[in-house]
Amino acid sequence: MNTLCRVVIAGTGRCLPARQVTNDELAESLQLDTSDEWIRTRTGIRSRCFAGPGETAATLGTEAARRALQSAGLRPEEIDVIICATVTPDLMCPATACLIQAALGCRPIPAFDLSAACSGFLYALAVGHQFVQTGMARQALVVGTEVLSRAMDLTDRGSCILFGDGAGAVLLSAPPSVNPQRGIHRIRLYADGSRQELIQVPSRVTPQPPPGLSVPQRLDFIRLVGREVFRFAVTRMIELIQQAERDCQELGLPPFDLLIPHQVNQRIIDAALEATHIPPSKVMVNLDKYGNTSAASIPIALDEALETGRCRPGDTLLLVAFGGGLTWSSALLTL
Ligand code: UT7
Questions:
Q1: What is the pLDDT at residue 210?
Q2: Is 248 among the catalytic positions?
Q3: Is 261 close to ligand 1, i.e. is its CB under 6 Å away?
Q4: Which residue among the candidates 5, 84, 98, 118 is catalytic per the annotation?
Q5: Residue spans of alpha helices (H) in the chain
Q6: How many domains does the chain have?
Q7: pTM of the entire structure?
Q8: Is residue 190 in contact with ligand 1, taking CB distance under 6 Å?
């Protein structure tokens, strides 16, 4: 029987569009009945990045992947599998992962997309982890990339203020000799499809009206029942943190050094921190600059946390996500 390999994060990268849009600019340009003050106090968001002409989930994902390769000191030919999490793919077919593969110039390797909304990156991390852990791949590229600005109903102030565009990527590998305290310790994935109507992004092939909605609306826009999702997010984030604290004890790990939550609303994070008694100093937050970038939010925050010294090799991280599906997920790892 093959023994399982220990899988580490060997490199990270991110790519944000150059165009940064402040709350005031958004409200003015869309003539929305909202304000910088409302958005800041209800969400913590101050600005977000919107893709420019020619920028797509594939181009942003490719650039994030290039930077992750560079930080890992690897060449595109050394990647053995690409897994891309996105709900805003360039095309329904082929997968955005194939477009990234072509742009990077990789060998013929498996490349596919995975859809789990804001939990997408952690779902993709779990799949990449298993590829490397079982020896099916030596190096796995895991990308989260979104252009949500093209899927927003720009007349709906309850949702369009939340989202932004961007991409993040990590390279997973199994070094021959690695400290057993390092690497991915545990990933937990959950879904509850019975609450699918709370966040939806229909497409051209969605039956009209989509399940759970009685009124036909324009297709391909994000629909969000914000208040319900808020409650779900707080409850699940608390559960995930408490579960991870038990996992640390069970696995003989010290308490995690940094929590990197899905970036969507400062009030969700604050409520979860209050319930779990985690100080804000142990949490990475960058939603003020980027808003909610769905599958891209955690790898962007991870890359930024490493770059700014919020975490460093040897630190134990807890990543937690929640979103459409409904889905929720966590990953406990040591850098
Ligand atoms: O990535 C997937 C996960 N997504 C989320 O986690 C989203 C979670 N939800 C949220 O972050 C929040 O629910 C929102 C930011 C979307 C909304 O904040 P809220 O505090 O839950 O507001 P609400 O929906 O309860 O609405 C309160 C009031 C309403 O007015 P009335 O009915 O009280 O008169 C809304 O019409 O705020 C109004 N409102 C706004 N006012 C100004 C909603 N959006 C806006 C806005 N500007 N942008």
A1: 63
A2: no
A3: no
A4: 118
A5: 23-30, 36-43, 57-72, 96-104, 120-133, 226-250, 266-276, 287-290, 297-307
A6: 2
A7: 0.96
A8: no
